[in-house]
Amino acid sequence: MPTYRDEVVVLRTHKLGEADRILTLLSRRNGKIRAVAKGVRRTSSKFGSRLEPFMVADVQLFKGRNLDIVQQAESLGSYGAEIVANYDVYTTASAMVETADRLNEAEATPQQYLLLVGGLRSLARGEHSERSVLDSYLLRAMALSGWAPGLTECARCGTIGDHDYFLAQLGGVVCSTCAPAGSPRVARDTVDMLRALMAGEWETIDTAPGRTVAAASGLVAAYAQFHLERGIRSLSHLESHR
């Protein structure tokens, strides 16, 4: 069908001409979509504000040759204003949508869409620490893409146990036998924190000591940066601000 509807998250936008925008969208049913929203930069636009980054919308699109065309847009989640009002929240959300934008078509599944929407909603409402929301999102998004870190058994030999090393290049926690010489040890509560972030156990996450949160964040960032083709630019901005 030349015309179709879908639920989307706006990942990023680019100006086109004097009044239009090119949108990169993560949709619920059609993967990643690149589309043109005509006239949305005019003050008279009926749905321009619904198609800003971090917004969730129900859109009707016309299937084009290279770019689809947005015909209608109804807001499902207006998270942009709350997110851009706080720098840390904004850079956290930027890292999340940048990660989602890296997904290829095979990885851009309904589960990825729902995960991102849930993360942006949590950020906008201030339900949890923004860094913990990001860490949980990154671990889950990578797991959905087939890059889940090993957290309950050695990522190299498969031995089950409480291991004292975490190496991004080896895929997660590793036992003392598999860890290369000189590898730094990781505290048990840090590994427990990683497991909680993966499982979304927010009671555990929200009450964790600051040093544990920081240590787990460092491991998540290293793991994500290693497995993505390029570093997450927004993540470096968040780190430098902290």
From TrEMBL:
It comes from the Bacteria. Keywords: DNA damage, DNA recombination, DNA repair. Signal peptide: none annotated. Residues 1-79 form the DNA replication/recombination mediator RecO N-terminal domain. The keyword DNA damage applies. Gene3D superfamilies: Nucleic acid-binding proteins, Recombination protein O, C-terminal domain. Belongs to the RecO family. Involved in DNA repair and RecF pathway recombination. NCBIfam families: reco. This is DNA repair protein RecO. It comes from Microbacterium galbum.
